[in-house]
Amino acid sequence: MISDLFTATVLIGIISSGIRLATPYLFASIGEMFGQRSGVLNLGVEGQMLLGAFTAYYIVLRTGNLFLAILGAIAVGALMGLAMGFVTIQLQATQGIAGIGFYLFGMGMSNLLFEKLIGVVENINGFPAVKIPLLGDIPVIGEIFFQQNLLVYLAFLLVPIAWFVLNKTTLGLKIRAVGENPAAADSLGVSVVRVRYFTVILGGILSSIAGASLSVALLNVFQQNMTAGQGFIAVALVYFGSWRPFGILAGALLFSMVNALQLWIQVLGIPIPSELAVMMPYILTILVLTLSLSKGKGPSALTKAFEREG
Amino acid sequence: MSESNKNSSRPTKFHISGIFDALMPIFATIAALLVGAILLLLLGANPITAYSALIEGAFGSFNAFAETLVKATPLLLVGLGTCIAYRASVTNIGGEGQMIIGALLSTWIGLSFTNLPGWLMILIAFLAGSLGGAIWGGLPGLLKAYFNVNEILSTVMMNAIAVQIMNYMLRGPMIDPEQAQAASQIPQTARLEVAYRLPRLVPTRLHIGLLIAVVLAVLVYILLWRTTLGYRIRAVGQNKDASKYGGVDVKKHIVIAMLLSGAFAGLAGMMQVYGVNYRMITDGSATGFTGNAGFNGIVAALFGQLHPILTIPASVLFGGLLVGANAMQRVVQVPSALITALNGLVVVFVVSSDYFRKRNQAKRVAFVESGQDTQPPGEAKKDLEEVTA
């Protein structure tokens, strides 16, 4: 039975779905990374994802327009980010707890809207797989990487873009400065408040798109609490990846590959408890966080509200 | 700078404007309910009808109130754990996982030994429940203290691991023999012996767990404000460096706070089994077993300003909201999920209102230091401008 796993078709299937399942993690984690690099821990990712997932799904259900759906998710995510920013940056509320509040809010609202406006689980036509010319025809590689849907490509493109923005642009320098030493950044004329608003709103938008990628690109359905903790994992992946885009990519792939493997184990009816497989990445994350204490030091001003002296 | 400028070491201070501070959570709730009223209007329901149905459903009858107290019990226990951990500046959001492990361990023992005297098994189950929760909370505590692992993340991970352990146990080794035969395969255990069930207080579902939780609240108050251990836990929470200079073993106290915090959540999980369902049952998610009490308990504790005694009425209030939400759903056809959303808003508003409380406190200190009794109106305006600038 286990040998079923090692046929070419199944292996390609696992890796290809692993790539696909990494999409929500990538969007949400990269967004969270920007926030944390500027000193804001957003624990409300799960709530933002759920609202984004619902919004995009609802728009597709009513209009069939995928472009509009993503725009809607962006708007909702920006609003959630703005609210989180106002509470943590302006009112200097404890970030972790405010995040839990936004998580409960997002979960409650998405459940409420779903029950009130839709009620039954309905499938929609989401983002179709797009075969990239030439690359998509390469055997195996093409099947795994270049026959995915648009959001998958975007999520993977986001990694080098985020790396470039963070390390090679003035904006990235400002974000890092604000996260490491806000007082110094402030004295050099960088607006701590503006930079943090920017990263938190960006984080909200990306989390919301992450949720949308689940409901209109991967699963093409909305269910209550469909994110099932992925938003919290996205936050953990930022630590796992030591606040670096490519580290996050590695973590996201680890989680998504294990998920894909676990799904295939169930499909093939292999008698390994699927719970054990699902559990592994969490245990691994704790181990990695435990053993990587030297390099795992985050931004110095993380979770610290900034207030001008005097 | 005087002591009172920082987080005051006493739980509540009754300055004149201190009363205003103490009422902050009430204002936050009213604000959340107002937002809820707007949502209700948008959803085409009459907010007054909806809210009266909610209050009626939560507190309107003897049975309703008993049900509210049943729901309040796990919130209070998780909330007490939250008070201890957060006072030590440890953000334990692993209540869900700690509840699950406490319940699993105590249920497993209860199903394994079927011919002990009832009181003895209940006592053992209390210990097992607390132990399970303490292990699940203590591990993140150890990792935080000695390996600098962020406890928010580790507790989230521990929640996810606990869910998988629960699903595995309830679908496998611990599954109800009847379900194992049946096609439905509901993940649930067999029922506990009748003798092992927590005694009920009145002919409702209300069990003795509520009384135990209230007694524990008083004990937690004594622990935090009347013992050296509690003093040290709070000192660690307020200023780690100063505590270290003062000779307090910071790491040890972080672990102790997490052990205790987890133990209370584990007890909450045990009581869900021994006091309410008489078996452990889930739908495959954490919420399926806990009813989200691991998170709502945090909400209740924050609402009670992390004070164990104030957490009692706060738990009753939120228990009432949860029970009343179902009544509201029946009357105005607005899903009870509205209440989850409003709970979230309450949290957001409460943490935001801290800002105004701190400002008030800072002002009071300034008056005391400058010997002023009242502030000239111009000054107040300047203050406001500085803050809003």
Q: Could you explain how this protein is built, in words?
A:
The complex is a heterodimer of chains A (310) and B (389). By secondary structure, chain A is mainly alpha-helical. Helix content of chain A is 71%, strand content 0%. Chain A has twelve helices and no strands. Chain B has a single domain (46-333), classed as Orthogonal Bundle (ABC transporter involved in vitamin B12 uptake, BtuC). The model of chain B is unreliable at 1-14 and 372-389 (pLDDT under 50). The interface between A and B is large, with 48 and 48 residues.
Q: How is this fold's topology laid out?
A:
The complex is a heterodimer of chains A (310) and B (389).
Chain A: H1 8-37, H2 45-63, H3 66-90, H4 95-118, H5 141-145, H6 150-168, H7 170-180, H8 182-187, H9 192-218, H10 230-240, H11 245-268, H12 274-291
Helix pairs in contact in A: 1-6, 1-9, 1-10, 1-11, 2-3, 2-4, 2-9, 2-10, 3-4, 3-9, 6-7, 6-11, 7-9, 10-11, 10-12, 11-12
Chain B: H1 16-22, H2 24-42, H3 47-59, H4 62-87, H5 95-112, H6 118-147, H7 151-171, H8 177-181, H9 209-226, H10 228-238, H11 240-245, H12 250-277, H13 286-290, H14 293-303, H15 308-332, H16 337-370, H17 377-388
Helix pairs in contact in B: 2-3, 2-16, 3-4, 3-15, 4-9, 4-12, 4-14, 4-15, 5-6, 5-7, 5-12, 5-14, 6-7, 6-12, 9-10, 9-15, 10-12, 14-15, 14-16, 15-16
CATH topology call of chain A: ABC transporter involved in vitamin B12 uptake, BtuC
The CATH topology annotation of chain B reads as ABC transporter involved in vitamin B12 uptake, BtuC
Helix content of chain B: over 70%
Low-pLDDT windows of residues of chain A: none
Domain module count of chain A: 1
CA-based shape of chain A: globular
Q: Please outline the major beta sheet of chain A.
A: none
Principal-axes geometry of chain B comes out as globular
**Strand coverage percent of chain A:** under 5%
Distance between the termini of chain A: 70 Å
Helix proportion of chain A: over 70%
The mean pLDDT of chain A is: 90
